[in-house]
Every structure is written in structure tokens, then in C-alpha cells.
Write a structure and sequence with these properties.
Layout lengths: L2 E4 L7 E5 L9 H11 L4 E5 L2 H9 L8 H15 L5 E6 L1 H10 L6 E5 L24 E6 L19 E6 L16 H17 L2
Helix pairs in contact: 1-5, 3-4
Length: 204
């Protein structure tokens, strides 16, 4: 399974990140976030689901596999990277959602989701939070306040468990990117996300 690694091998915790449904492990977002977190002294491993890896070789767009297959691929990566209690898992959007489902099953150190898909855009009634109550580890979601997959205003009604916290990127979209009129840049927003992630990982 293809992987990319940033940061020191001797880091106390390895963070394993999966990409979202539509962009690969070396997308601008994934590359920028991994580099920023690694620069703070953490080892960051990115991997690619099989359907995305096949896109590279075939040139044909494929949709993601069904959830059981994605979770099996996640388990395989964790086995290759290290014991579950030595890794934190997470990812962008769909990748983070699959990681959070595994975090309710495996004894990983923590779970870090970037732009969590609480619901499909425009369909707030279709929540993807049913597994949150079973989370077994500290879990952090870093979310843009303008994310159409889940806004700050919607969260109070979701009754999130104590194991899960949400930190916000002001004016951020699903890639945590603010608008120009916000007064700050996407690079500054990603810097802020990496600072939040760093504090979370150091506390595990």
C-alpha cells in the first residue's frame, strides 16, 4: 500500500492520516498539513486507499470502496506502521471518518479528524455520528466554521461525547481555507490547524 512519511522516526507518537474521497494522499491540503505537523516533531504517515492508488495507474476515476473494505485497508496500514497503542489515526473528511470508526474499535492513542463529514452538504438530518458514543480514545476534530459538512451552529444539537472535542478554524471551508475577506490566508489557517494538532498529539 503506498505511503508517504514525514518527520522523525523516533517521534513519541506516529500519526497515520488517510485522504478524503476525492483527492489523493499528496493533494495540496494533505501535503501541507502533514509537513506542518511533522515540522513540530511528530512522525506523520500518509497512505492511499486502493481505489485511489488504482487511479494513478489506470488514469480512470473510481469511487471509494464500501466501508468494510476501507476499514480493512486502514487495519492493514496500522499493522504495518506499529502497534495500535503507538499510533494516532485520522485523516481528511472520509479518511477521518473511517479512522474515527476504527477508533471505536481499536486501542489507538488518539484520533485526529480534519474537516469531518458530519452529514452530506445540505442534508443535516443524515448524521454520521452514531459511532461517536463508542469512541475509546481522545478524539479531536478540526473543522472550518463554514464547512458545509458540519458548521459550528449545528454542533450543539449533536450531543457529542466527552471523549470528543472540536476546535474551529474561523471562516474555514472543508479544506479549512478562509476567504480573502477574512483577513488571513489559507497558509495561516493551516499553520493554526497544525498548532492545534500539535497540542493534541503532545497530550496523548
Amino acid at each position: 500500500m503506498p505511503v508517504l512519511t514525514d518527520g522523525p522516526d523516533a517521534a513519541a507518537v506516529t500519526l497515520v492520516l488517510a485522504h478524503g474521497a476525492g483527492a489523493p494522499m499528496d493533494s495540496p491540503f494533505m501535503t501541507a498539513i502533514a509537513a506542518r505537523i511533522a515540522a513540530k516533531g511528530h512522525r506523520v504517515v500518509r497512505f492511499e486507499f486502493d481505489y485511489m492508488a488504482e487511479r494513478r495507474t489506470s488514469g480512470r476515476k473510481r469511487p471509494p470502496e464500501r466501508q468494510p473494505a476501507l476499514l480493512d485497508q486502514w487495519r492493514r496500514v496500522i499493522d504495518e506502521v506499529g502497534a495500535p497503542d503507538a499510533v494516532a489515526i485520522g485523516g481528511k473528511s472520509m479518511g477521518g471518518r473511517m479512522a474515527s470508526i476504527l477508533a471505536a474499535e481499536l486501542a489507538v492513542r488518539g484520533c485526529l479528524c480534519l474537516g469531518y463529514p458530519f452529514h452530506p452538504p445540505g442534508k443535516p438530518e443524515r448524521l454520521r455520528t452514531e459511532h461517536f458514543a463508542a469512541l475509546r480514545c481522545p478524539t479531536l476534530i478540526i473543522q472550518g466554521t463554514r464547512d458545509p459538512f458540519g458548521t459550528r451552529e449545528e454542533l450543539p444539537a449533536m450531543a457529542l461525547p466527552d471523549t470528543l472535542s472540536v476546535d474551529w478554524i474561523e471562516d474555514g471551508d472543508h479544506d479549512l481555507a478562509p476567504r480573502k475577506k477574512s483577513g488571513w490566508t489559507v497558509e495561516q489557517a493551516w499553520d493554526r490547524a497544525a498548532e492545534i494538532a500539535d497540542r493534541f498529539l503532545r497530550a496523548l
